[in-house]
Amino acid sequence: MSIDSLKAALPDYAKDLKLNIGSVLTSPGLTEQQIWGTAVASAIAARNDVVRDAILAEATAKLSPEALNAAKAAAAIMGMNNIYYRFVHLASAADYKTMPAKLRMNVIANPGVDAVDFELWSLAVSAINGCGMCIDAHEHEIVKKGATREAIQNVVRIASVIHAIAVTLEGERAQAA
């Protein structure tokens, strides 16, 4: 499967998504690695096998094995962190904010790619998973490392479009069943 076949799988009512997927995957201010790493991490976080497989098929030719692995690692670690830190943020008891997480997160310190790229991918997954605490933390780190607000916005645009395509295809799958 490819991006073109993904577009073809979308119903007519999702025409905007067909147009947006092409434009967000050529976002200015991002490197090809940043774009496709974001796409991979977002597709995994979106939890739709058709979207995930299409993105992975294209990204494999555009990313080094190390970058592909790091994008998958960002989706994995943020899948854990977003749940934990969303709980900490939303729980009424303030005690949780002072307690150590006691969760291994070694990949964040040594992801195998440039730290800003890994942070961008972590931000995309955090946006999909709706963890405000993680969004704030990653956005802060990305800015501190020198990325622009436009680059950050473009990463979140990629995540939003990929997630919307996954939601649309899941809706179509459910209706067909």
From TrEMBL:
GO terms for biological process: cell redox homeostasis; response to oxidative stress. The active site is at 131 (proton donor), 134 (cysteine sulfenic acid (-soh) intermediate). One of its GO terms (molecular function) is hydroperoxide reductase activity. Its EC number is 1.11.1.28. The keyword Oxidoreductase applies. InterPro entries: AhpD (IPR004674), AhpD-like (IPR029032), AhpD_core (IPR004675), CMD-like (IPR003779). Transmembrane segments: none annotated. It catalyses: N(6)-[(R)-dihydrolipoyl]-L-lysyl-[lipoyl-carrier protein] + a hydroperoxide = N(6)-[(R)-lipoyl]-L-lysyl-[lipoyl-carrier protein] + an alcohol + H2O. It is an enzyme of class 1 (oxidoreductase). Disulfide bonds join 131-134. Pfam families: CMD. Gene3D superfamilies: AhpD-like. Keywords: Antioxidant, Disulfide bond, Oxidoreductase, Peroxidase, Redox-active center. Residues 95-167 form the Carboxymuconolactone decarboxylase-like domain. It comes from the Bacteria. NCBIfam families: ahpD, ahpD_dom. Belongs to the AhpD family. PANTHER family: ALKYL HYDROPEROXIDE REDUCTASE AHPD (PTHR33930:SF7). Antioxidant protein with alkyl hydroperoxidase activity. Required for the reduction of the AhpC active site cysteine residues and for the regeneration of the AhpC enzyme activity. This is Alkyl hydroperoxide reductase AhpD. It comes from Aliidongia dinghuensis.
